[in-house]
Design goal:
2 helices; 0% strand; mainly alpha
């Protein structure tokens, strides 16, 4: 999750750096960009990973029940 976040920030700030060569960016623009990206990212990533963990646990329980069944 952290590696994905850092990679996304690199691309985001890289794009902003390129755009900054053509238009003037406000001094607080970098912070605002970081904040407007980070807050939704944390919420959505946490939701995704919690749901993924829940689904994985459910599938592991199903596999455990299948393994315990006697052969037919």
């Amino acid at each position: 999750m952290v590696i994905q976040y850092v990679m996304a920030l690199v691309f985001l700030f890289g794009g902003m750096w390129i755009v900054g060569h053509f238009v003037e960016i406000n001094k607080s623009g970098w912070f605002e960009m970081w904040r407007s990206f980070t807050i939704p990212y944390i919420i959505l990533a946490a939701t995704y990973y919690l749901e993924l963990k829940k689904q994985t646990k459910k599938q592991n329980e199903m596999l455990g029940r299948i393994k315990k069944r006697p052969p037919e």
